[in-house]
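explain this chain.
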Amino acid sequence: MEYRILGPLEVVDEGEPVALGRLKERLVLATLLLHANEFVARERLIDELWGESPPPTARKAVNVYVSQLRKALARNGHDPITTADGGYRLEVDAERLDAARLQQLLATARERAAAGELEAAAELLREALALWRGPALAGLLLESHGRDEIAQLDELRLTALMDRIDCDLALGRHDQVLGELHVLVGEHPLRERLRAQLMLALYRAGRQAEALEAYQQARQTLVEELGIEPSEPLQRLQQAILRHDPSLETPEGTAAVNGLAPATARPPQAPPVEACAPAARRRFQPRRWQLAIAVLVILAASAAAVVVFSTSAAATPHVVPDSLVRIDPRSGKIVSVTSVGAEPQGIAITPRGIWTTNLTENLVTRYDLRTHKVQTLGTPPEPFAVVADAGNAWVSSLRSSSTITRFAAFGTGPSAGWGPLDPSDTSKIHLPPPGAVSLALGAGYLWAVAGPKTTPGTDDRVWLVDPASDRVVRLLRLGRETTSIAFGDGAAWIGAFANEHEIASFPAPWRGASWLFSIKFGAAGPRTQSYRLETGDTAGPSAVAVGDGKVWVLTCGTCNIGVDNQKLLEFDPGTGLVVKRIPLGSRNPNALAVGAGSVWLVNQVDASVMQLDPKTRRIRTIPVGNPRTAAICGIAASRNAVWVAIGNRYCEDTGG
């Protein structure tokens, strides 16, 4: 019996495919194969099959799926699936599982390369790559950690491919790998190792100008996408090419190019170039083992280089109202300013683009991170909050809060792919009045709460929407007025309050207090927990964000400009306690985000951004705009950038 996961899931017995039954059974088998010969708990299988919302019958269903798999896989009375306490183990010989065979081939290839047997190493790597039949476990979507494990397998394929290219370059096959490298750089534009391989191959093929152009393209991509300069090893490689440095092809010279100590002993000299060698050939041809060491030193240094942020002396872009501004989280410098329409409010970040809502012009805007083009489409009146995934964006409306609009970034109609936004690719989600304003995505749902714009005392409801069908599939009641929502750490976190004038039956000291609710899904369905945050705060949390293992809550009392009662609360989900209350003064922070290793807040009064280090709790203030002409109305953060929406002098009030 052979098991294959480096591509679509397959089981083959004596050359014939084995029928694997229903989708859930295949998902169970996929999880067991990802942990072949290891114990896998039944709860882990439940997580992979249903994520955060398993049905009440999940445990029984898993038992049935395993039973069916046993029938399919058993041969000659041998059952490969053994039952352990609370879980299962699938016994597989390493030679019978393609992923295990891959690991063996890669380890042997590295040993051969270290011994200087480059041809043998290249052949082993080709054999390893031939095991792949497509993306790992193609067509199967696991709901928990299995996604990361599949991604690791796909990453291993790319690593093996780059290792094989190293060997080919070392063996003088630069012309043969050039076409492949151009394709790979296009697919993985941020991989500096591939960029270095392409530059080296072009240089050794006698195409120095193209090698230098490849460096400029790499630099432009890194600066525009991440706001960083190329790593120092890649910069040194460019300088060596500019000098026609022959040391690029010798071990000691390569060490000097990369800032390392030169070899103490001089290596054997390369053989002389033949007198009748064609003019197109390289100036000289060093021995293959020398090339191997040269390539590996350059690329290993590139892979291990510390990211260096741009220190360019170029002028900082001028911030203007009605724009989307990108900030480098490390230096605090403004990287770019893009016009996006009047009074932008909400921001949602995806790997491909940035979505914003433009309140005054009734537009939703999408900024393409690759082409740097801005596309707009009309929305319901006064678009406010926006959340997005790789394929869709959902937008709430202040004027018609009973309606949420979905925009399709990828579709089957005229806007298929990352093309122009099309009205035909929008749909409406209708909620009972007064509807919802604040949105979040998580656990397979679109979450919607009334938020700060509904009439006080009107709604404590939480709607859960199926993103695939745009239908409300669950309604939860909290018993307190909702103000804001975020999703993270496996739960929805909802800010709320109970005003004594609205709900007089609540006993003191609950009256007029700020609350934080968490909603998690377990085997028995949603589990709701409430935590009292602040007494006497009649407005409730104005913003909630999750990151760095904490929930961050912005409270602002009456939320009036100049009122010195605004705080940032650091809430520990593990203990259910507020571990720190950080006073913010009276600068009227109205937005909150977590990302790039920091907590970010917006100051409306002076049009600045506060950056809080969650470990030291030190705060840095970053000026962004002129408070007399512009105001920061929204903020979002990723691992490498902070984005702020710049409106006119005043933002739409998001207080309670």
In short: Residues 378 and 488 are 30 Å apart (CA to CA). The longest strand covers residues 513-522. The radius of gyration is 29 Å. Residues 172-264+283-314 form a domain with the Serine Threonine Protein Phosphatase 5, Tetratricopeptide repeat fold (CATH 1.25.40.10).
